Amino acid sequence: MAQVLIELSCLLESCPDLNKHPWHIPGTTGIVLVTCVCNCVNTVHTQKPHFLAVHCQEVGGKNYEASMSHVDSFVKELLSSEAMKEYSRARVYLDENYKSQEHFTALGSFYFIHDSLKNIHQYDFKAKKFRKVAGKETCSETLETTPMLEKEKFPQDYFPECKWSRKGFIRTRWALPDCVFDLVNIHLFHDASNLVAWEKSPSVYSGTRQKALGYVLDRITDQRYERLPYFVFGDFNFRLDSKQVIESLCSTATMQTVRAAETNEVDKLIFRESDNDRKVVLQLEKKLFNYANQDIFRENNGTSLLQFDKELSVFKDRLHELEISFPPSYPYSEDSNQGKEYMNTRCPAWCDRILMSQSARDLVLKVSPHPNTPKVARRLRGAPPALVMNV
User: Which of 89, 177, 189, 358 has a CA 20 to 30 Å removed from the CA of 338?
Assistant: First the structure.
Protein backbone atom coordinates (compact mmCIF):
# COMPACT_ATOMS: atom_id res chain seq x y z
CA MET A 1 0.00 0.00 0.00
CA ALA A 2 1.41 3.39 -1.01
CA GLN A 3 0.99 6.60 0.95
CA VAL A 4 0.22 9.54 -1.31
CA LEU A 5 0.46 13.08 0.01
CA ILE A 6 -1.13 16.01 -1.80
CA GLU A 7 0.07 19.42 -0.69
CA LEU A 8 -0.42 23.04 -1.67
CA SER A 9 2.16 25.75 -1.57
CA CYS A 10 3.20 28.95 -3.25
CA LEU A 11 6.35 30.69 -4.34
CA LEU A 12 6.95 33.69 -2.14
CA GLU A 13 9.08 36.67 -2.94
CA SER A 14 11.65 38.33 -0.74
CA CYS A 15 11.02 39.62 2.75
CA PRO A 16 13.29 41.94 4.80
CA ASP A 17 15.03 39.17 6.77
CA LEU A 18 15.06 36.60 3.98
CA ASN A 19 18.85 36.24 3.99
CA LYS A 20 18.58 34.82 7.52
CA HIS A 21 16.28 32.05 6.36
CA PRO A 22 18.01 28.63 6.47
CA TRP A 23 16.73 27.83 2.97
CA HIS A 24 17.89 31.05 1.40
CA ILE A 25 20.03 30.37 -1.67
CA PRO A 26 23.37 32.19 -1.44
CA GLY A 27 23.91 34.56 -4.31
CA THR A 28 20.25 35.19 -5.08
CA THR A 29 18.50 38.48 -4.67
CA GLY A 30 16.11 37.01 -2.17
CA ILE A 31 13.64 34.49 -3.45
CA VAL A 32 12.83 31.42 -1.46
CA LEU A 33 10.12 28.83 -1.53
CA VAL A 34 9.54 29.33 2.17
CA THR A 35 6.23 27.59 2.63
CA CYS A 36 7.00 24.82 0.18
CA VAL A 37 10.38 23.93 1.65
CA CYS A 38 9.20 24.01 5.25
CA ASN A 39 6.22 21.87 4.33
CA CYS A 40 8.19 19.43 2.17
CA VAL A 41 10.88 18.87 4.77
CA ASN A 42 8.39 18.61 7.61
CA THR A 43 6.24 16.25 5.57
CA VAL A 44 9.10 13.97 4.56
CA HIS A 45 10.24 13.66 8.17
CA THR A 46 6.82 13.13 9.74
CA GLN A 47 4.68 11.44 7.09
CA LYS A 48 7.34 9.68 5.02
CA PRO A 49 5.11 9.68 1.92
CA HIS A 50 5.81 7.37 -0.98
CA PHE A 51 4.43 9.88 -3.49
CA LEU A 52 4.52 13.61 -2.73
CA ALA A 53 2.66 16.06 -4.97
CA VAL A 54 3.15 19.81 -4.45
CA HIS A 55 1.30 22.38 -6.54
CA CYS A 56 2.50 25.98 -6.63
CA GLN A 57 1.00 29.12 -8.07
CA GLU A 58 2.64 32.46 -8.88
CA VAL A 59 6.02 30.86 -9.57
CA GLY A 60 8.58 33.62 -9.19
CA GLY A 61 6.21 35.79 -7.21
CA LYS A 62 4.50 38.95 -8.37
CA ASN A 63 7.79 40.43 -9.57
CA TYR A 64 8.40 37.40 -11.77
CA GLU A 65 10.49 39.18 -14.42
CA ALA A 66 13.17 39.97 -11.83
CA SER A 67 12.80 36.79 -9.78
CA MET A 68 12.27 34.00 -12.30
CA SER A 69 15.98 33.56 -13.00
CA HIS A 70 16.48 32.27 -9.46
CA VAL A 71 13.77 29.63 -9.52
CA ASP A 72 15.83 27.05 -11.40
CA SER A 73 18.68 27.38 -8.90
CA PHE A 74 16.26 26.85 -6.09
CA VAL A 75 14.77 23.73 -7.68
CA LYS A 76 18.25 22.21 -8.05
CA GLU A 77 18.91 22.97 -4.39
CA LEU A 78 15.67 21.33 -3.35
CA LEU A 79 16.15 18.21 -5.47
CA SER A 80 19.65 17.65 -4.10
CA SER A 81 18.79 18.40 -0.48
CA GLU A 82 19.42 15.91 2.32
CA ALA A 83 15.71 15.77 3.12
CA MET A 84 14.91 14.45 -0.36
CA LYS A 85 17.76 11.94 -0.65
CA GLU A 86 15.40 8.94 -0.67
CA TYR A 87 13.39 10.42 -3.56
CA SER A 88 15.58 9.55 -6.53
CA ARG A 89 12.70 10.03 -8.98
CA ALA A 90 11.12 13.45 -9.43
CA ARG A 91 9.25 15.47 -12.00
CA VAL A 92 9.19 19.26 -11.83
CA TYR A 93 7.15 21.35 -14.25
CA LEU A 94 7.60 25.12 -14.09
CA ASP A 95 5.78 27.55 -16.33
CA GLU A 96 8.45 30.25 -16.47
CA ASN A 97 8.00 31.69 -19.95
CA TYR A 98 6.55 35.03 -18.91
CA LYS A 99 7.33 36.52 -22.32
CA SER A 100 4.51 34.46 -23.83
CA GLN A 101 1.54 36.27 -22.34
CA GLU A 102 -1.03 34.14 -24.17
CA HIS A 103 0.35 30.98 -22.52
CA PHE A 104 2.03 32.04 -19.25
CA THR A 105 0.32 30.72 -16.09
CA ALA A 106 3.18 30.85 -13.52
CA LEU A 107 2.16 27.39 -12.29
CA GLY A 108 4.62 24.92 -10.82
CA SER A 109 3.97 21.21 -10.22
CA PHE A 110 6.41 19.11 -8.18
CA TYR A 111 6.20 15.32 -7.85
CA PHE A 112 8.57 13.26 -5.69
CA ILE A 113 8.61 9.44 -5.65
CA HIS A 114 10.19 7.46 -2.81
CA ASP A 115 12.72 4.75 -3.64
CA SER A 116 10.54 2.10 -1.99
CA LEU A 117 7.69 2.67 -4.45
CA LYS A 118 8.21 0.54 -7.54
CA ASN A 119 6.78 0.59 -11.05
CA ILE A 120 5.45 4.15 -11.20
CA HIS A 121 4.24 5.35 -14.59
CA GLN A 122 3.25 8.74 -15.95
CA TYR A 123 0.93 9.31 -18.88
CA ASP A 124 2.13 10.60 -22.22
CA PHE A 125 -0.83 12.63 -23.51
CA LYS A 126 0.53 12.73 -27.06
CA ALA A 127 1.30 9.01 -27.43
CA LYS A 128 -1.69 8.13 -25.23
CA LYS A 129 0.21 5.61 -23.16
CA PHE A 130 1.97 5.39 -19.82
CA ARG A 131 5.76 5.63 -19.52
CA LYS A 132 7.83 4.38 -16.61
CA VAL A 133 9.23 7.12 -14.37
CA ALA A 134 13.00 7.04 -13.87
CA GLY A 135 15.44 9.67 -12.64
CA LYS A 136 14.79 13.34 -12.05
CA GLU A 137 13.56 15.71 -14.72
CA THR A 138 12.79 19.41 -14.68
CA CYS A 139 10.85 21.01 -17.50
CA SER A 140 10.25 24.74 -17.90
CA GLU A 141 9.37 27.39 -20.46
CA THR A 142 8.15 25.00 -23.19
CA LEU A 143 5.37 23.25 -21.31
CA GLU A 144 3.01 23.67 -24.27
CA THR A 145 5.00 21.04 -26.19
CA THR A 146 5.63 18.68 -23.28
CA PRO A 147 3.66 15.46 -23.85
CA MET A 148 3.70 14.45 -20.19
CA LEU A 149 1.16 17.08 -19.17
CA GLU A 150 -1.74 19.18 -20.33
CA LYS A 151 -1.44 22.91 -19.73
CA GLU A 152 -3.94 25.58 -20.61
CA LYS A 153 -4.41 29.22 -19.89
CA PHE A 154 -8.05 30.22 -19.73
CA PRO A 155 -9.49 31.69 -22.95
CA GLN A 156 -9.14 35.45 -23.04
CA ASP A 157 -12.87 36.06 -22.88
CA TYR A 158 -12.88 34.32 -19.48
CA PHE A 159 -10.65 37.02 -18.03
CA PRO A 160 -12.31 39.97 -16.30
CA GLU A 161 -12.32 42.87 -18.76
CA CYS A 162 -10.43 40.50 -21.13
CA LYS A 163 -7.09 41.49 -19.56
CA TRP A 164 -4.49 38.72 -19.49
CA SER A 165 -3.40 37.47 -16.08
CA ARG A 166 -1.61 34.36 -14.88
CA LYS A 167 -4.54 31.96 -14.54
CA GLY A 168 -4.97 28.45 -15.88
CA PHE A 169 -4.32 24.80 -15.08
CA ILE A 170 -1.85 21.92 -15.53
CA ARG A 171 -2.88 18.27 -15.56
CA THR A 172 -0.67 15.21 -15.07
CA ARG A 173 -1.75 11.55 -14.96
CA TRP A 174 -0.15 8.88 -12.78
CA ALA A 175 -0.29 5.10 -12.44
CA LEU A 176 0.67 3.61 -9.08
CA PRO A 177 0.65 -0.15 -8.49
CA ASP A 178 -2.94 -0.12 -7.21
CA CYS A 179 -4.58 2.94 -8.78
CA VAL A 180 -4.52 5.49 -11.58
CA PHE A 181 -5.51 9.15 -11.19
CA ASP A 182 -5.16 12.70 -12.51
CA LEU A 183 -3.61 15.58 -10.56
CA VAL A 184 -4.67 19.07 -11.64
CA ASN A 185 -2.85 22.23 -10.58
CA ILE A 186 -5.22 25.19 -10.81
CA HIS A 187 -5.23 28.95 -10.30
CA LEU A 188 -8.53 30.82 -10.60
CA PHE A 189 -9.34 34.53 -10.69
CA HIS A 190 -9.08 36.75 -7.62
CA ASP A 191 -11.34 39.53 -6.35
CA ALA A 192 -9.98 42.71 -7.91
CA SER A 193 -11.96 45.03 -5.61
CA ASN A 194 -13.47 44.52 -2.17
CA LEU A 195 -16.02 47.21 -2.98
CA VAL A 196 -17.22 45.44 -6.13
CA ALA A 197 -17.32 42.09 -4.31
CA TRP A 198 -19.56 43.68 -1.66
CA GLU A 199 -22.11 45.03 -4.15
CA LYS A 200 -24.17 41.88 -4.60
CA SER A 201 -24.52 38.27 -3.48
CA PRO A 202 -22.96 36.25 -5.01
CA SER A 203 -20.33 38.61 -6.35
CA VAL A 204 -19.46 39.08 -10.00
CA TYR A 205 -16.06 37.54 -9.25
CA SER A 206 -17.69 34.38 -7.96
CA GLY A 207 -19.41 33.99 -11.31
CA THR A 208 -16.12 34.35 -13.18
CA ARG A 209 -14.48 31.65 -11.05
CA GLN A 210 -17.48 29.38 -11.52
CA LYS A 211 -17.20 29.69 -15.30
CA ALA A 212 -13.45 28.97 -15.27
CA LEU A 213 -13.70 25.98 -12.93
CA GLY A 214 -16.49 24.54 -15.04
CA TYR A 215 -14.23 24.89 -18.07
CA VAL A 216 -11.46 22.90 -16.33
CA LEU A 217 -13.81 20.13 -15.23
CA ASP A 218 -15.21 19.84 -18.75
CA ARG A 219 -11.71 19.60 -20.21
CA ILE A 220 -10.43 16.90 -17.85
CA THR A 221 -13.55 14.76 -18.26
CA ASP A 222 -14.10 15.07 -22.01
CA GLN A 223 -13.82 12.23 -24.52
CA ARG A 224 -10.19 12.74 -25.56
CA TYR A 225 -8.83 10.48 -22.82
CA GLU A 226 -10.12 7.78 -20.50
CA ARG A 227 -11.99 9.31 -17.58
CA LEU A 228 -10.18 8.64 -14.29
CA PRO A 229 -10.41 9.74 -10.64
CA TYR A 230 -9.06 13.27 -10.36
CA PHE A 231 -7.76 15.59 -7.66
CA VAL A 232 -7.90 19.32 -8.36
CA PHE A 233 -5.82 21.34 -5.93
CA GLY A 234 -4.36 24.81 -5.98
CA ASP A 235 -5.48 28.39 -5.48
CA PHE A 236 -9.19 28.51 -6.32
CA ASN A 237 -9.44 32.02 -4.89
CA PHE A 238 -12.78 30.99 -3.37
CA ARG A 239 -13.99 33.85 -1.17
CA LEU A 240 -16.64 34.17 1.47
CA ASP A 241 -19.82 35.80 0.23
CA SER A 242 -18.66 39.36 0.91
CA LYS A 243 -22.06 41.00 1.19
CA GLN A 244 -23.41 38.36 3.56
CA VAL A 245 -20.32 38.08 5.74
CA ILE A 246 -20.05 41.86 6.13
CA GLU A 247 -23.73 42.09 7.03
CA SER A 248 -23.10 39.44 9.68
CA LEU A 249 -19.89 40.93 11.08
CA CYS A 250 -21.36 44.45 11.13
CA SER A 251 -24.98 43.63 11.96
CA THR A 252 -25.25 46.32 14.65
CA ALA A 253 -23.09 48.91 12.92
CA THR A 254 -24.04 51.92 10.82
CA MET A 255 -22.44 52.44 7.43
CA GLN A 256 -20.81 55.62 6.17
CA THR A 257 -20.13 55.94 2.44
CA VAL A 258 -17.16 58.04 1.33
CA ARG A 259 -17.03 59.04 -2.34
CA ALA A 260 -14.11 60.23 -4.44
CA ALA A 261 -14.31 63.96 -5.10
CA GLU A 262 -13.29 63.67 -8.76
CA THR A 263 -15.59 60.85 -9.87
CA ASN A 264 -18.23 60.61 -7.13
CA GLU A 265 -17.60 56.84 -7.11
CA VAL A 266 -17.60 54.97 -3.80
CA ASP A 267 -14.06 55.16 -2.40
CA LYS A 268 -14.56 53.54 0.99
CA LEU A 269 -17.19 52.21 3.37
CA ILE A 270 -16.84 52.73 7.11
CA PHE A 271 -18.90 50.66 9.54
CA ARG A 272 -19.20 52.10 13.06
CA GLU A 273 -20.79 50.80 16.22
CA SER A 274 -23.99 52.62 17.13
CA ASP A 275 -22.66 53.23 20.62
CA ASN A 276 -19.25 52.58 22.24
CA ASP A 277 -18.03 55.99 21.03
CA ARG A 278 -18.91 54.97 17.47
CA LYS A 279 -15.86 52.75 17.24
CA VAL A 280 -14.92 51.69 13.70
CA VAL A 281 -15.71 47.99 13.23
CA LEU A 282 -14.72 47.67 9.58
CA GLN A 283 -13.19 49.90 6.95
CA LEU A 284 -13.60 48.66 3.39
CA GLU A 285 -11.76 49.95 0.34
CA LYS A 286 -10.76 48.47 -3.01
CA LYS A 287 -7.79 46.69 -1.47
CA LEU A 288 -8.47 47.19 2.22
CA PHE A 289 -10.46 44.99 4.59
CA ASN A 290 -9.61 46.31 8.04
CA TYR A 291 -11.77 44.45 10.56
CA ALA A 292 -11.39 45.22 14.26
CA ASN A 293 -11.45 41.64 15.55
CA GLN A 294 -9.27 39.21 13.60
CA ASP A 295 -9.76 36.52 16.24
CA ILE A 296 -13.09 35.53 14.72
CA PHE A 297 -11.22 34.13 11.71
CA ARG A 298 -9.03 31.94 13.94
CA GLU A 299 -11.36 30.84 16.74
CA ASN A 300 -12.36 27.20 16.28
CA ASN A 301 -10.63 27.34 12.88
CA GLY A 302 -13.09 29.99 11.73
CA THR A 303 -15.91 27.46 11.45
CA SER A 304 -18.54 30.08 12.27
CA LEU A 305 -17.77 31.64 8.87
CA LEU A 306 -18.00 28.45 6.81
CA GLN A 307 -21.69 29.21 6.26
CA PHE A 308 -20.53 32.01 3.93
CA ASP A 309 -18.16 29.73 1.99
CA LYS A 310 -20.56 28.91 -0.84
CA GLU A 311 -18.68 28.85 -4.13
CA LEU A 312 -18.10 25.10 -4.17
CA SER A 313 -21.80 24.33 -3.74
CA VAL A 314 -22.41 24.94 -7.45
CA PHE A 315 -20.23 21.90 -8.18
CA LYS A 316 -21.60 19.60 -5.48
CA ASP A 317 -22.31 16.86 -8.04
CA ARG A 318 -18.85 17.02 -9.60
CA LEU A 319 -16.43 17.96 -6.82
CA HIS A 320 -16.07 16.75 -3.25
CA GLU A 321 -14.06 17.93 -0.29
CA LEU A 322 -13.08 16.45 3.03
CA GLU A 323 -13.79 18.27 6.27
CA ILE A 324 -11.81 21.50 6.60
CA SER A 325 -9.86 21.59 9.85
CA PHE A 326 -7.82 24.77 9.48
CA PRO A 327 -8.51 28.53 9.59
CA PRO A 328 -8.84 30.55 6.38
CA SER A 329 -5.65 30.08 4.36
CA TYR A 330 -5.52 33.61 2.94
CA PRO A 331 -4.25 36.35 3.28
CA TYR A 332 -1.62 35.59 5.92
CA SER A 333 1.03 38.23 6.49
CA GLU A 334 4.18 37.92 4.40
CA ASP A 335 6.16 39.39 7.30
CA SER A 336 7.91 36.45 8.98
CA ASN A 337 7.51 38.18 12.34
CA GLN A 338 3.72 38.29 11.97
CA GLY A 339 3.06 34.87 10.48
CA LYS A 340 -0.04 34.29 12.60
CA GLU A 341 -1.69 37.52 11.50
CA TYR A 342 -3.84 38.20 8.47
CA MET A 343 -3.07 41.12 6.22
CA ASN A 344 -5.82 43.72 6.14
CA THR A 345 -6.11 43.61 2.36
CA ARG A 346 -8.92 41.06 1.92
CA CYS A 347 -11.51 39.26 3.98
CA PRO A 348 -9.84 36.00 5.12
CA ALA A 349 -11.08 33.00 3.15
CA TRP A 350 -10.34 29.38 2.31
CA CYS A 351 -8.77 30.11 -1.09
CA ASP A 352 -6.45 27.08 -1.14
CA ARG A 353 -8.36 23.84 -1.52
CA ILE A 354 -7.95 20.14 -2.26
CA LEU A 355 -10.98 18.94 -4.22
CA MET A 356 -11.70 15.60 -5.86
CA SER A 357 -14.11 13.63 -7.96
CA GLN A 358 -16.40 11.07 -6.33
CA SER A 359 -14.17 8.23 -7.52
CA ALA A 360 -11.10 9.98 -6.10
CA ARG A 361 -12.90 10.50 -2.80
CA ASP A 362 -13.60 6.77 -2.75
CA LEU A 363 -9.84 6.17 -3.08
CA VAL A 364 -9.20 8.40 -0.08
CA LEU A 365 -11.89 6.83 2.08
CA LYS A 366 -11.51 3.18 1.11
CA VAL A 367 -9.13 2.43 4.00
CA SER A 368 -11.31 4.19 6.57
CA PRO A 369 -14.46 2.66 8.04
CA HIS A 370 -15.64 6.12 9.08
CA PRO A 371 -16.26 8.51 6.18
CA ASN A 372 -15.39 11.60 8.19
CA THR A 373 -12.09 10.30 9.55
CA PRO A 374 -9.75 11.74 6.88
CA LYS A 375 -9.45 15.51 6.92
CA VAL A 376 -7.70 18.17 4.97
CA ALA A 377 -5.30 19.49 7.57
CA ARG A 378 -2.41 21.88 7.95
CA ARG A 379 0.75 21.35 9.93
CA LEU A 380 2.21 24.86 10.08
CA ARG A 381 0.50 28.13 10.92
CA GLY A 382 -0.04 29.98 7.69
CA ALA A 383 0.78 26.95 5.56
CA PRO A 384 -1.70 25.79 2.93
CA PRO A 385 -3.58 22.53 3.42
CA ALA A 386 -2.39 19.00 2.82
CA LEU A 387 -4.09 15.64 2.40
CA VAL A 388 -2.58 12.24 3.19
CA MET A 389 -4.15 9.12 1.73
CA ASN A 390 -3.26 5.44 1.45
CA VAL A 391 -3.83 3.76 -1.90
Answer: 189
